[in-house]
């Protein structure tokens, strides 16, 4: 399950449909991502991290640091 992806989306008052449109996928696929029913492809995970201005590690619960890593 990816609760941080859902929480970040809800914090911005966005619908699953809005996020699905941004990611060029269906709402059903995006919903599957949030529920953890399917693994999120790396390219989608990176797009989500960029969209929410955070790191993929934060989205994956590997860190509590919400700030993205510095570009290098």
TrEMBL record:
Keywords: DNA-binding. This is Transcriptional regulator. The lineage of its organism: Bacteria, Bacillati, Bacillota, Bacilli, Bacillales. The keyword Mitochondrion does not apply. The keyword DNA-binding applies. It comes from Paenibacillus kribbensis. Coiled coil: none annotated. Residues 5-59 form the HTH cro/C1-type domain. GO terms for molecular function: DNA binding.
């Amino acid at each position: 399950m990816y609760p941080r992806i859902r929480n970040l989306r809800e914090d911005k008052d966005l619908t699953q449909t809005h996020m699905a449109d941004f990611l060029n996928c269906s709402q059903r696929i995006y919903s599957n991502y949030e529920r953890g029913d399917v693994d999120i492809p790396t390219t989608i995970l990176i797009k989500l991290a960029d969209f929410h201005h955070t790191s993929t590690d934060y989205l994956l619960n590997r860190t509590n640091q919400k700030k993205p890593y510095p570009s290098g």
